[in-house]
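hi! just following up on the protien thing from before. the input was this:
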Amino acid sequence: MKFPTFDLTGEVALVTGATRNIGHALALGLANAGADVVVVGRNERDCLSTAEEIRAMGRRALPLPTDITDQAAVEKMAEAAAAAFGHIDILMNNAGTAITKKAEDLTMDDWDRVLDVDLRGAFMAAQAVGRIMIRQNKGRIINTVSVYGYVGGKLVLPYLAAKGGLAQVTKGLAMEWARYNINVNALVPGYIVTSLNEKDFQDERVYKSIIRKIPMRRLGTVEDIIGSAVFLASDAANYVTGAVIAADGGWLCE
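and the predicted 3d structure came back as:
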């Protein structure tokens, strides 16, 4: 009997949104599991900094600053990564943004900004890297979806639409690309404390309203989601596709 492992040695992972918060933690987590990492983000300096952190861990890293909403740039990014390493084994599709605003106050620019990154950009990255994985007849795509792809919420309507759409994109790609030995799954973080939201949680009313939704009665940390990502990227998930792996403290159980 062959026992699968979580070891990613020799694998190449391309991580979008890799320079901050959840994406940064996932890039380092995949590197810690053995992967070499293509670091994708909007800011060149941040990409270089994250790449240096990964190299300090003894892994190879390639910084590729990219506007994930620009199709030509995304396609160039994928081909540059494949040319540098010879293959791309894992896509950690993590780039995202959100706007907090009442539905009646949203502009179409607000709507387009969120969907361009969270849905259109995520699909373009999956498509560009997926073409390479089809040629390889091998690959794993992990889309960071969020619990808001599956439950309702207030003041984040474009984000709900984008993440709900990405959940369906995940299922559709899983079905289409299974024949190419490409696994496509959704990683679903709950409320994870990051530099973007830590001030919000200092408001006791906000904190209590969120904690009531979480059976584990605590907020998540970026470290809490690394294990799920490494599992989905590894041989241990060989027979897993179209799945939702939630690291949400039990929120989606309700």
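The longest helix spans residues 108-136.
DSSP finds seven helices and seven strands in the chain.
cheers
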